Amino acid sequence: MLLLTDRSDFTLDSYRRVAWEGEPVEVGQDALERIAERRSSLERLVENNPDRHYYGTTTTPGEGVKTVLTEEQRRAFLDQGLTNWVFGDPVPQRVARGVVFARLINLIEGHAGVRRTVVEAVAACLDGRELVLPSRGHLWEIGVPGPLYEGLVERVGRLEMKEPNGLSNGCPAATALLCDLTIASQNRFTLALQAMALGAEALLAPHEHYLEEVGELWGDEDEKDAMARLRELLQSAATERRPYQAPVSFRIIPRMLGVALRSQHMAEKASTTMLRAVSHNPVYVPPAEGRPDGDIWSTGGYHPAQAIQAMDGLAYAWANLCQLCCHQSVRLATDDYGLQAKNATGWDVSRSSGGMASAAWAYEMAQLAQPTLLPLTGSGQTDAGSMSFAAWRKATEIGRGLDALLAGVSVTASEIYDLTGRPVPAPLHDYLDFVRGYRAPNGSPQTIGKDVGSLANAITARVYEESSIVATASR
Question: Cα–Cα distances in Å, from 82 out to 110, 138, 242, 466?
């Protein structure tokens, strides 16, 4: 049980525990008392300023901000309950849970201005029940409350002033989507590193390509980090190497993995920031000097610009690695050095044609990797939407494409080891065993496509293996 007391409890690690591993949460007593106190202050503020335009509080949302509601109109608005125009296949359970967890960021210190009973009811949604969050219709990043919180009104009696807004505004969805991709990127990087190291060794790439001194000459910390991790995997590699440089697609592995690491670090930083950010609109700020009952400020905090930029960064890095894998698969299948045994042992066109299959995958992923820009939507108050779901879907699909291309590189490299009988470096033993679990040594040419497909699915499963609650719809 994760105890939540304030925003400092929202970290990428706690997100993983709750969203991916299914851990329930409890809102601490100190937090509940603070929430209740700030709710009382908010009620006094509105009571003392009945004619102020407080968005979604004394007015309705959207263009309704222009008109202050009468008491009767406020009650009619509250009686409408939680609604949202959402539809489509549901997102994985890990993402739905992540959205609820991220919703609590705005509630935990009273900035949404809702009652403590509402906060407790939201936290209770993480008790293990199945959550349904459709994947479409979220053009404005408003937190998609309706489907997630079905039954909440019955539990709390009825929603009061500002509470519909408190459950629908902010950017919990974008925060969850970014965190989801960030955790996946950490796992996917490890698999990409192993697959490319296996390929580099199969090709007998000269050690000089990955020397520490080369990294120092380049001067980039992420590239040096990627190069160091690559060297670790190539410990105890074959001492006899090719006498000339390997193809470009193998020499630039540290550069390309460096880009992936840089994008990952950017996503980690953005995730950490958003997991502690008050993104509500309007935001309730507590009493202070000059504002005895606090105040309600309208802001653009709900717009998740940095989340979309970070998700696009991961999509870009993964799409580029797709292109690199395509080149590597072709070179592994056609390069002569160290593979003199291939013709005598039945290396045939069914294996070398893997490059064409890789090219098709890589091309499709390149088409997906377009920037996610502000859409031309709406008018009035909602004249600029957010495309966080589109950015997440795009990056997720490109990630799965990369998994498939890594499978192609891995199987082709494994075939080379089978044909030449060369030993694999000790740090890569487990990964090669993993690959051979889906493509047995000297496997039939007729099943190679099926075997690569099975391995691709297994790689994706490893990316998400820390999620014990991946919904069927996401598999």
Answer: 20, 15, 66, 33
pLDDT level of residue 202 (50, 70, 90 thresholds): very high
Least confident of 167-176, 305-314, 342-351: 342-351
Give CA–CA dist 462/409, Å, rounded: 17
pLDDT per residue over 235-249, tens digit each? 888 788 889 999 999
The answer, yes or no, to whether residue 26 has pLDDT greater than 80, is yes
- What pLDDT band is residue 225 in, cutting at 50, 70 and 90? very high
CA distance 320 to 331: 17
- Predicted local confidence at residue 386, as pLDDT: 81
Q: Which two tokens stand for residue 258?
A: 């460096």
Question: Residue 152 and residue 205: Cα distance in Å, rounded?
Answer: 60
Task: Check if the beta carbon of residue 209 is closer than 8 Å to that of residue 341.
Answer: no
Confidence (pLDDT) at 471: 39
Q: Strands (DSSP E) along 86-137, which ranges?
A: 87-90, 134-136
Task: List the structure tokens of 19.
Answer: 């969203």
Q: What is the mean pLDDT of the chain?
A: 88
pTM to 2 decimals? 0.93
- Which pLDDT score is estimated for 188? 98
User: SS3 helix, strand, coil % of the chain, rounded to 5?
Assistant: 60, 5, 35
User: Which residues, 6+ apart, have CB-to-CB distance to 365 below 8 Å?
Assistant: 318, 319, 322, 323, 397, 398, 401, 402, 405
Question: Which of these, 87, 112, 236, 237, lies nearest to 163 by C-alpha position?
Answer: 112
Q: Which CATH class is domain 180-273+303-470?
A: mainly alpha
Work out the end-to-end distance of the chain between its first and last CA atoms, rounded to an integer number of angstroms: 27
**Cα four-point dihedral sign 361, 364, 368, 370:** positive
Q: Report domain extents, the chain.
A: 2-177+278-285, 180-273+303-470
d(CA 228, CA 234): 10
CA-to-CA dists, residue 215 to 218, 223, 227, angstroms: 5, 7, 7
Express each pLDDT in 132-168 by its tens digit: 888 876 555 555 555 677 778 778 888 899 998 888 8
* CA 433 to chain centroid: 28
Q: Which H or E element spans position 279?
A: none
**Are 431 and 200 contacting, i.e. CB atoms less than 8 angstroms apart?**
no
* 414 DSSP assignment: H
**Fold of the domain built from segment(s) 2-177+278-285:** Fumarase C; Chain B, domain 1 (1.10.275)
| Interacting residues of 222 by C-beta distance below 8 A, sequence separation 6+ | 258, 259, 261, 262, 265
| Encoded tokens for 459 | 């790689």
